[in-house]
Specification:
about 600 residues; Multidrug efflux transporter AcrB transmembrane fold; Alpha-Beta Plaits; 3 domains; six-stranded antiparallel beta sheet; elongated
């Protein structure tokens, strides 16, 4: 069997036109996706778009040691993110810096004073008894029925907790409880609960006193005050709009500013109810430990276990004894964090001994989130405002303009150098730079909504540095090809022989740059990460552009007479390369068919 003839193996590089078509199709597809998504410009960071940057420093509470640790700081970041999101801010950044600092960047359009108040206040967690409640309708303000019955059902049809659908708290296992069907009006229910809190015996009166004696007793005065307070709370409950972030935020602000002995109104976003809550029964700092675990008995699935200190155990035992004797919804207590209800389980039995569990067919994530929030209430951390930096939109625009001018100057210098030194080859380099810039712009525009990437000033600097990295790849390739030409090869084989050597050098150089960007991104925080991300992205794009655009384009150019014959402006002029032989080899004259002497 005859061996196959030796020759050049066909490859993708042998068909450079296909490679160019592929990368141009990819460019068109990405650009089309950018316009279809509606995000045609990169999302700007706080230093370019303007906004507020707040630096908070964590400190231990007096008498506490080693409370400033990674776990507590990450939990604090989660709480601050909830607060900022409550402001309706979708592009805020909350992250730790170092071991004890938290950086909060809020873009323009947000009230600075509100933002500072939200992130600068230490989160407070507390347990408050539920006095009454009503479901939230579509309007978020009024209930279709004045019935005081309410449940802590998290999600409506999930069936959490007892038979009435609300999560329950117990010292061992949960028991069922039927909701009250009392027809008492909301206002009288609140009045009765407030009166019960005011009496030393803990007994509740269903109605305020009707005494009209000219010299009212202290009891009738207390009842009258409770009735007035109940009327005010009832109006606030009916007016409370839980259907919007603004309405919930307003309620949370007022609740957070209330004294522990004040009654408040609050929203429970998970259950779809809003409640009137009594004074604080147990402070969150009384929790010594809280965690999400699987029910050892295998009945409830995921549950949340809580352990109280001695004083907290006494307070929790007292309040649960009172709640267990009441009908729904007054047998519930609300876990309130930052003025918002995180859970409102029912109590079916007195819980003593300093430990309790909250059950209700929780999913793992729900149980872990509740456990973290309960833990945060016990964190001995406070935050001190270290600095507040406000960047106006005008200043950000000036910075962006300065960065773009610097980039334009750098690009112009690179282009001038390429034109002067490489002549016609500069056209290939400039086309490659333009494609790289276009890909970078499109990807930055798409990555904004996709992963939250924001273009800040250090990121612009990273893009400017990338101009030099990309130009360096072109120079390496061009010089390898020119070296092959100096050795006497014509241009087409010089391109194919010079490419493998240039390819190795380009890959090694870009790998080092990408590795540096990756390490910088991992070990730094804040704006420096923007520089590292942009540098890494543009380095990857440099590999794509050189392999799939620059190399095929130069392969096609080598087939043209302008470059192949070594035109003085082609970049392969023999005189400039220091050689005398022409680039294109000529055929040797063929031997004559007849002897000239015989002719």
């Amino acid at each position: 069997m005859a061996a196959p003839k030796k020759g050049r193996k066909p490859s993708a590089q042998g068909k450079p036109g296909r490679t160019l078509v592929l990368i141009l199709i990819a460019m068109v597809a990405l650009t089309g996706g950018m316009f279809l998504s509606g995000h045609t410009t990169p999302r700007l960071g706080i230093d370019l778009a303007g906004g507020t940057s707040i630096t908070l420093k964590a400190k231990n509470e007096p008498g506490q040691k080693n409370a400033v640790n990674q776990t507590n700081m990450e939990t604090a970041v989660g709480i601050i993110e909830r607060r900022v999101n409550g402001l309706g801010v979708s592009e805020a950044e909350v992250q730790t810096q170092g071991n004890d600092n938290i950086i909060v960047n809020i873009p323009r359009g947000t009230d600075e004073e509100s933002a500072r108040e939200q992130v600068g206040t230490t989160a407070k967690l507390s347990f408050r008894p539920v006095l009454t409640g009503m479901p939230v309708t579509e309007s978020g303000k009024e209930s279709p029925s004045p019935s005081p019955s309410a449940s802590g059902d998290k999600g409506g049809d999930k069936g959490k907790g007892d038979e009435s659908g609300k999560p329950s708290a117990s010292s061992s296992s949960s028991a069922s409880a039927s909701p009250s069907s009392s027809a008492t009006t909301q206002g009288r229910a609140v009045t009765g609960a407030l009166a019960a809190d005011a009496t030393p015996s803990g007994s509740a009166s269903a109605e305020p006193s009707d005494s009209t004696s000219p010299a009212p007793s202290s009891s009738s005065s207390a009842d009258a005050a409770a009735a007035a307070q109940a009327t005010d709370l009832q109006k606030r409950l009916e007016a409370l709009d839980c259907s919007t972030a603004e309405g919930r935020l307003d309620a949370s602000d007022k609740a957070r500013g209330a004294k522990p002995e004040d009654s408040i109104v609050a929203c429970d976003p998970d259950s779809g109810y809003k409640y009137v809550l009594g004074p604080v029964a147990v402070e969150g700092k009384r929790i010594s430990d809280a965690s999400a675990v699987i029910d050892p008995q295998g009945v409830e699935g995921w549950i949340v276990q809580m352990d109280f200190d001695k004083k907290g155990a006494d307070q929790f035992g007292k309040i649960t004894s009172q709640l267990a004797a009441k009908a729904a919804p007054q047998n519930q207590f609300a876990i309130v964090l930052d003025g918002e209800i995180t859970s409102a389980p029912s109590v079916n039995t007195a819980i003593t001994g300093g430990n309790a569990q909250i059950s209700g067919n929780f999913k793992q994530e729900e149980a872990e989130n509740l456990g973290n929030m309960l833990s945060y209430g016990a964190l001995p951390l406070t935050f001190e405002e270290q600095s507040v930096t406000t960047v106006t939109a005008a200043l950000g625009g000036e910075q962006l303009e300065a960065g773009l001018i610097a980039g334009a100057i750098g690009l112009a210098l690179v282009v001038i150098y390429l034109v002067v030194y490489y002549r016609g080859l500069a056209l290939i380099a400039i086309a490659s730079l333009l494609l790289s810039a276009a890909l970078t712009y499109v990807l930055m525009s798409l990555l904004g909504p996709a992963i939250g990437f924001a273009l800040n000033l250090p990121a612009v600097c990273g893009a400017i540095v990338a101009i030099g990295i990309t130009a360096d790849s072109f120079i390496v390739f061009f010089e390898r090809v020119r070296d092959e030409v100096r050795e006497g090869r014509s241009l087409r084989p010089a391109v194919e022989r010079g490419w493998p050597r240039a390819r190795r050098t380009i890959l090694v150089s870009d790998f080092v740059s990408f590795l540096a960007a990756a390490v910088l991104f991992i070990v730094t925080v804040g704006k420096v990460q923007g520089f590292a991300f942009t540098l890494g992205l543009t380095t990857l794009l440099d590999v794509v552009v050189v392999f799939f655009f620059t190399k095929p384009l130069l392969t096609l150019a080598a087939r043209s007479k302008f470059f192949a014959d070594g035109h003085p402006w082609s970049g392969f002029d023999p005189k400039r390369l220091g050689i005398k032989a022409p680039l294109r080899r000529t055929r040797r004259p063929s031997a004559p068919l007849t002897d000239p002497k015989e002719a």
